[in-house]
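Hi W.,

Here's what went into the run:
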Amino acid sequence: MNNTFNYQNNELFCEGVNLSAIANKIGTPTYVYSKMGMLESYREFENAFSPLNKMVCYSVKANSNISVIKLFSDTGAGIDCNSRGELFRALKSGVNSSKIIFTGVGKTEEEIRYALENNVMMLKVESFQELETINRIANEMQLVAPIAIRLNPDVDAKTHPYISTGLAENKFGIDINEGQKAFQFATSLSNLKVVGVDMHIGSQITSPLPYVDAIKKLFSFINELSKIGISIDHCDIGGGFGIDYDEEKNIDISIFAKELLPLLQQFSGKIIFEPGRFLTANSGVLLTKVLYTKSNNKKDFVIVDSAMNDFIRPTLYNAQHEIKHLKQSDKNKVTVDLVGPVCESSDFIRKNYSLPICSQKDLLAIMSVGAYGFVMSSNYNSRRRAAEVLVDGNNFKIIRNRESFEDLINGEII
Ligand code: LLP
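Here's what came out:
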């Protein structure tokens, strides 16, 4: 277990706060994040790559609560946004737009206009048609749009197929073999200024090797580009740095740095990183309460008050998150399916999991959910989305209220 969540006198704490106290006051399900944990992960990442001329852009899709965005931008991070909504959140959190990069394989014209109006640092472009579209919009707005081109290097990130993005069969980026044509085309368009080259090969990557392969391809591409007179200021190698879900700790980023630094230092411009999960995953838990337990001749079930609408990673990727009792238990362990109240069998938090016997009203923590947790929640089964809480030392505060039933029908018309 990482050091932000610890048992003290058999009670699970986040920093200096007893998680049971939060559950009792705010109710469940509730997401709880540690400010210290997030900042430590950021520092770990920064320090590992400190020899570089670099910019670390927090990828807000991992956890886009405006308090979390502000926490990272206050430490000096740039911000990576993937939609107008994320950009809106970043601006609302007070991020300086010159530190925002705007990504996305399918930006609408409205999103492109919004990004340009707000003077983002750059837009990352993923197709020839998008180059044309941004150029036309920039022309109408009488400005020059700073852009980078995202290349698809066709490397296998060796991660879950749903979160692998750097293979030729994936929808992302422009095929690296078409890259030179794309840069030539972009430089011929008078309302575009080409500033960078970009890649993002996938998420939850646990070995540096796929990055090494992809960066080598990117750098030889940049080399070829310079031969035809096109130079760029920065190279964005994306995010994707994984965590260890079993041990609830970050992967040792210094192992990545050891492999990547000698390569990245060959580039004379700025290196951009876009970590999301690495910065937030281990700093979040989802508090949940046992509603019922029951058994049949095949299974023991623990039915909790969090469901697939609150946390969909197990359903979607078969993700295996640790589960802990808030009151450390010395009861015998049993193998259970931990399931939610939603009316389908894909609604599970963990299957065939060995856990000290649960009783009604026991409080549990689903670990390592600070990334791709709340942000992927929904109102399925007309369930209200959970509250979010931020712990700072011995204090905690709600950073998003639990939705009300009125919130559920907000905007609906009879
Ligand atoms: N940059 C780009 C362009 C991305 O598409 C992503 C993630 C990131 C950065 C941040 O990646 P990270 O460092 O967090 O791995 N919902 C999935 C993860 C989807 C990731 C999508 N893109 C999950 O729960 O595992």
